[in-house]
Every structure is written in C-alpha cells, then in structure tokens.
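$ fold --in a.seq
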Amino acid sequence: MKIAIQGEPGSFSHEAALQMVPGAEIVSCALSAGVFQALDVGAVEAAVIPIENSLAGSVLEHFDLLLNHDVRVERESLLRIRHNLIALEGVKVEEIERVSSHPVALAQCRRFLAEHTGMKALAYYDTAGSVKQLVEQGDRKAGAIASQSAAKYYGARVLAVEIEDNAENFTRFFLVRRASEAKTDAEANKISLAFSLENRSGSLVAALAELATLGTNMTKIESRPVQGKPWEYIFYVDCQMRSADEAARTREALKAHCSMVKELGFYREAQR
C-alpha cells in the first residue's frame, strides 16, 4: 500500500504509518495539502496524518482538510513520542551550538534546552528534516531533535535519549482513505463528526443536549472558523459508540439542529 505523509522519511508520521500498515511504501509530501492532493488523484491509496498531540493539542489544519476532501477516517492509532538529541558521528554534546527541529518538538524539550544554554534552538519544518539537513551539510556544530528512526535513516548518532519534558507525550494519528474505498471495522466504536449550526440562540446547547439524551459519550469537541464567513464556525466532535445503530442515531439527532453534518469516520478506538 502506498501511504502519503507530511514530512521526511524517519519522521513520527513515517513511524506511525509503518505501525499501522507494516511494509507500506511511504510517499513523503512537503505540505499537508499535498498529502490530500495525492490521495485525491489516486497517487496513493491512503494517508496517515497526526490529528492531536496529548501535550500540544490538535493539528487544526488537518480538521479543515478532512472536511474539505471526499475522504474518511478508517483507523486511528496512538504513538508515544520520544524526542532525542541527534548529531553527526563523533560529535559531543558540548560541541553543539545550534539545535533544529519542528517548533512543537522544541517546545516539548524546553527543560533540556534550558539546561544546555550553549545550544540555540532553531525552528525547522520537520523533525526528521532537521536531521536530514545536518547530515547533508556536515555541520559538526549542529544538532537536531527527532526520533531514533530519523537518526538511523540518515546515518546520524543519538547523543541523548528521551529528552522531552513530559513522558506522557502521545500523538493520535488517522489512517485516511478516499470515501469510496474506506472500510468500516466490524468492531468500530468511535465516530468523528463535523457540523455547523443554524445561527440562532441556544443552537449549540440544543445539539449537544441531543447527544446527552442518547447517552453518547463525547470525548472531544473543537471549533474552527468558516473560511470567508467571519464569526461562523464548524464544530468537530469525537464520540464513543456502542454500536453502528447508535452512530446512525447520533448523526440523525444532530441533523435536527445543524445546517450541515458530515461523518469524518467511524472506526475502532485506539488503545495505549
């Protein structure tokens, strides 16, 4: 299976994709929009995208892309994020003057960086990409923060392992396929929905009350602005389901109060 990811080989998305589909052929894209475009035109069979990190929160762009493309979430997984200090072979920690990584990764390693005042943190577009850059440039004063997989992939060396501030660092990933080709797991017990509301008083409360009446356990809610319509919002919710029938009743209950309801996926909830 060809799977598109955003980022370089050796990234956490790469790791998550192989965890979900061992042996998959990974197609790297520079931008998330490129991932969905590759899926749209059939260049790949699926995409693996991060949707939420337990410390940094939601990847908001990916909610918009899920809504605006004819795709469905087929599976989800959780990946424990372990950040590592990486440099060229033979370089010592005290020689490093600059450390590059994705801004989220840098933010999750503040304590380590504060303890190494000689290292200047530099934001880069991708964790694995920062390792690729230092290897290509042969910069012995540069380091990167990324996965051990990235170090192995590019032939660099791990100098310090698990340097993140908080060990409870997990990212939730979605496996996404074209809607016409997505399959529903027989043990699906979680649904992701997007909906917009009629512009009237109490509409959100009424919609959520419908879910409460059904006994639906909502595990997440997120709002995003509607592009080109100031002060209008799309709401995204995740709900635990006891059956496919409950999922159908949940969709119908929301339709009574919403101007738009889209099911993003009905899948099995990932376990730690």
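$ fold --in b.seq
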Amino acid sequence: MLQSKLFSKTKKEAPKDAEVISHKYLVRGDFIEQSFSGVYRFLPLGLLVLRRIEEVIRKEMIGLGASEIFLPALQNKSLWQETGRWDKIDPPLFKFKDRHQKEIALGSTHEEEITDIFRHRIKSYQDLPLALFQIQSKFRNEMRPTGGLFRTLEFLMKDLYSFHPDEKDLKIFYEKVKKAYFRILEKCGLKSICVEASSGTIGGELSHEFMVPLEAGEDKVLFCPKCGFGANIEKTGEMKNCPKCKAGLEIKNCIELGHIFNLGTKYSQAMGAEYSDRNGKNKPVIMGCYGIGLTRLMAAAVEKNHDLKGIIWPKDIAPFRAHLIQLETGSKVKKAASDLYKELTDGQGFETKVLYDDRDKSAGEKFAESDLIGIPIRIVVSEKTLAKKSAEIKKRGETKMKLVKLGEVKKYI
C-alpha cells in the first residue's frame, strides 16, 4: 500500500490520561482513538493488526476441528432467564427496551445462544463431539474502564464452545485447546502461563486463565518457579507454598488474555440440551467454553514488544510485513523504489504486506514514523544505496543494517 494513500496521522504526544505504554503508542501511531471512556475506534493500521490476530486464531480453531459461526450481539432475555443469569451475571448486562418495550441485552458472552443452537439441531451421540467458534464484539458493563485496551466496555473476542458425550472426551479437547492457546500467544510475541482460576458467573467445574506477566497487569498470580504451578490469587488466597511441590511461591502482576472453562452440564441441564446415547437414553451434553480477547491481546503484544522509539510488532500480527522507504524524491530514486514495490507486490499476495512510503518528507520524519508504527522489516532506497544497486535492510528493534542487491530483496519478506 502507498503510504500517501494510507489514512493515518501519527502524533508526537500521547494522551494525558494514558498510563500504560500500549495505550500511548497505539494512540500515537494512530492505530486507535478513543470515542468515549472505555470505547475505542480502530483505524486502518489498528484494524490490520486485529485482522492478523484473527488469522492466527482462526487457523488454530480450524485446526481443532471447529466450525466458525457468527452470533447476534443483541441477546434474547428469555434465554438468559432459563439459566438464571439475566440479573446475576457480573459485570451486569447492558440492558435496554426496543420500541415495543421488549427487554434486550448486549451480549457479554454467548453460552445461552450457543446452547440454544445445539438443542435445536443435535439429538444423537453420533453428532458428538462438536465445536463451534466465533470472533465477535462483546460488551461488558465495567465499573471502571482503564489501561487503554486492557479494560473496555466493548472489545473483540474469540469464543469457542465444545459439546461432548462425557467428561473424558471433554478433557481431551480441553488439553488440545490449552496447547492451541500457547501457540496463539507465542505467535503474538507473548510468553504465557496457564493458571487455575475462579469460574465466576460463567460457572462450571474447572477453569484456567492464560496470563502474561506485565507490570501494568491488574491480576495477581501465584507462581511456582520449581514445578510451574500457577493460580490466580482470586481463586486461592495468598498461600505461601506450592500445593504440588511445596516450594515457595512468587507473586506476579499479570494480564489475563484467555480463559477456558469446563462447564459440565451447567447450561445443558438448565436449557434442556440433551442427546441420545448408544442405549437410546437421553443425557445432558457436557460443554466447554474457551475465550480469548483480541483487543486486549493486541495491547499486551505492544507492552511486551516495544522500545523507546515505538512498537516492535511480531511478524505474524504486524499491520505490514515490510516498510519500503524512499528517501530522496529524485526521479532515479523514485523509479527504483517504485519498481521494487511493484516487484514485491505484483501477483505475490503481498499487496497488504508492504507499506511503501512514497511521501515527500524528510528522512528523519520517515524513520521516526517507521519506528513508531513498528513494521518488522525496513527497506530503504536512496541515492547512496543505488550507487551499489542495493537497498538497505534493517529489522525493527535491531541496529544492524545490511545492503542487499535489489533483485534479492524479495526473499526477505
């Protein structure tokens, strides 16, 4: 994409109320802007990052055998009354009335919706196990939105739901999801720990959170450096020794990026979601649900991958793979940079993977913006590099540069 056509206006100063580095850099880089407290607009660069994260997650979900669906944000009160959560879920639902005075809520989660889908379609053990997922906006009536994208009223979330004939089958799938979550977070530049957690108002018999240690994190996690045991203090209280190996526990500030639940029959019993087993006996289906917040993940990736100049995006979720920068505006440099751009994008599927800075700006301005928005590879074409029929290539976050012949640049992206 030509940078002269990109809708983006970077800023030299962060918002005065921005406390965490991800909030500062995402606003300064023009990835996001606040609409009002706890609600953000995603601008072209920010949306590109979200789409990259979606690609990473979608690949793993399909790898688990899950089918993608899309459920409504507007939620049916009667379904929530079946499970008793209409007035009990915390944070409380955003509720309103339509013109017919019918009460409706904005979806903060979709257990009721997905269980309703199951009970209308699945009747036999032969259709199990089953897994369905979506990537959709969620709405949480938070008391105190804070930390930029860390705690918001509206956010993008992937939620996966699974249905099983028995606990053994659920346990196998649950462990597969754990491994998939570790892979997702690693591709997003994040090392996570999986800890025992409270199930809250989602409920169920067992749950785990995927935590990333961060100074700005609001959760406190007990972690055993010897055996790897971890638990949210919210679940365990402040115990001093590991319940598994008795070693001393450490307390770490963390941010929760994913939460997975063994729901058991909490929703299937309440809503009559049954299947017929091999003996023709009706049984409530065993369920699991697995959430991961994309917008929060985006912020955490910045918290863990940045320097004093700006963001350093991991390559799998960067808005573009490479940033081609034309320094001088002379015809020779302009033609060489333009030709290289065409070579890098023509018919190779790289149209959205290369950002070409064709603007008439100083080298200092271009480099400062490039460092701020954090594209992994910087390719510079100038009179100096052309004298050697080359381009200068540098990885974001590194100081080492190399001259690469123009005909060999393509392999670097």
